[in-house]
Amino acid sequence: MVQRLLQPGEIESLDHTAIPRLLLPEARSLFSARAARLRQLADNQIKGIPVGETLSGYLKMMAALVDAQAAVATTLPADTYALPDAAGIELAIDHHMPPLPVSGQRPASWRRVFDAILDQLDPLAASQPQLAAVLAELRALDSAQLEGCADAVLAELTEGVHPLHAPFVAAALQVMWTKRASQLDAQRVQPLVTNTLCPVCGSHPVASVIRIGGQSQGYRYLQCACCASEWHMVRVKCTTCESTSKIAYQSIEPEGGMPEPSEPVNKANDPSKVARAETCDECHTYRKIFNQEHDYHVEPLADDLASLALDLLVGEAGYARASGNPLLWFNAE
């Protein structure tokens, strides 16, 4: 059989069917969708991610914070989220560096975002004394203290960071970087030397997700904890050390147990596969992987925050979490 040679125009058209390497965030809808998911999780509506009463209250508080992010992302002037000069972006891309790095000097306008988020939360704080106290403490921080907290949040350091302050600072930084990332050209951004860091800002991923629909069908993406960009990584590969030899998956058995061998098994909508921990016996770390094939509405950051029971299970098995969640901080101890 003679194979027909493709013409140049046909070759170019094939590019549109390739795996999208980078999915930039939809900044106008991302935070509202995340807040809705957090409330579903808080109400224990998601099979496969059981949530206790104590965690439920925290998730509802974080949903309110994400609501504030959504409002600020759509109401502040566009110049708040202005990109660096084009020459700087091109230089970074040409050298396979993040065009919007979290390291180094950040735009001063992030403080405008921070103040606006706190203002959005004031009505809720009127009925919640604990939240009101935290907001008062945040407003009392001087410039050096606030910038120091932002430095630590972006560097993912726990030492010297107040665990109640950090999520609010992280929330402002997330809005700042997500809005700016959404303005980039995904086709121009180049992968980094390591595929374990975000090609847009250089941050660690919060989790990975198997997407469905369109060109992304069945492919795994890592979602950035800071700018929410998603980049492709093949499945069954450690997202920390990139090993492929000793990968395993841990999950929480659904309520009622697994079906008996004689029972029919639905390949979709399997609660035990909505949230799993991908563990690596080379570097002894793990990162969670969420599967849209089993729950269409998975949201990596929200689902990661809600699945602390899975963290406890995997931690007891001797694995260390590869990176944190920007909406949950612990004391250094």
From TrEMBL:
Keyword Cytoplasm: yes
Keyword vocabulary terms for this entry: Cytoplasm
GO biological process terms, semicolon-separated: protein maturation
Record Gene3D superfamilies: FdhE-like domain
Domain FdhE central: 197-235
Domain FdhE C-terminal: 236-328
Main location, first listed in the record: cytoplasm
Pfam families recorded: FdhE_C, FdhE_central, FdhE_N
Superkingdom per UniProt: Bacteria
Domain called FdhE N-terminal: residue spans: 19-192
Residue ranges with Low complexity bias: 253-264
UniProt subcellular location: Cytoplasm
CC per GO annotation: cytosol
One annotated GO molecular function: ferric iron binding
Renumbered residue ranges of the record's region Disordered: 252-271
Protein family per UniProt: Belongs to the FdhE family.
Protein function: Necessary for formate dehydrogenase activity.
HAMAP family tied to this protein: FdeH
Name of the protein this chain belongs to: Protein FdhE homolog
Species: Duganella alba
Organism taxonomic ancestry: Bacteria, Pseudomonadati, Pseudomonadota, Betaproteobacteria, Burkholderiales
